[in-house]
Amino acid sequence: MRGARVLVDRYRLDGVLGVGGMARVHLGWDLRLRRPVAVKVCTATDEVGVRRFAHEARTLAALVHPGLVPVYDLAESGPTPFVVMRLLDGGTLRDLLAAGPLPTGRVRELGARLADALAHVHSRGVVHRDVKPGNVLLDRHGAAHLADFGLARSADATRLTRVDEVVGTAAYLAPEQIRGEDVGPPADVYALGLVLLECLTGRREYGGGVVAAANARLHRPPEVPRDLPADLVRLLTLMTSLSARRRPTADRCARDLSGRP
């Protein structure tokens, strides 16, 4: 494409797929392998933002799982830090939910895959901290892939946020995140529980403004419909428990949702 920007003489940027706080995702073309790709380019201008982007790039490159977006290449430093990933063209789970609630079987399938991906992430010492429908990408077959590790934290990483800094999306934050406490894998399980509940009901459990959405869960647990299958009612109730200690592991959630022992 004439006049298109090309990174490292290989990746042509043909258009913008999405824009975030510290990066822009482009539709790209790998000139060497002649295939479409997604290229996430760092747009942060401050030191913390650039470090977060580099951390996300390293985190993504170290994680390999069918439920995660594969990384093909990265440049975490230099004039234009970027990450090259598989292009997923099935939209997001948020787009899918715009049409209404999903069948129970489909929610089990999506939940099992995402929980299994989180189990892999947690086993590598990483907490995602921003699980939400907009961060779940779908491929053309409808399979889910957890994306956007910009707020993820590794157990051995240098802290890029203060202990009392709230990070994530208000509607899906775990109670411990709202209180500004250090969070672990149970926070991701909680957020996934809210995402699955939204898939089943077609509505966001904690809506309203940022403050209202954040404070609501400190005073009431989510309302899990009692007409759902009993095993789903029990699992979602545990996943969204106000107490992090009561929540099952992501691996346990994956096994329960898929019917594995």
Automatic annotation (TrEMBL):
Protein kinase domain residues: 11-261
A GO molecular function held by the record: protein serine/threonine kinase activity
SUPFAM superfamilies: Protein kinase-like (PK-like) (SSF56112)
Protein name: Serine/threonine-protein kinase
Keywords: ATP-binding, Kinase, Nucleotide-binding, Transferase
Coiled-coil regions, chain positions: none
Domain of life: Bacteria
InterPro entries, alphabetized: Kinase-like_dom_sf, Prot_kinase_dom, Protein_kinase_ATP_BS, Ser/Thr_kinase_AS
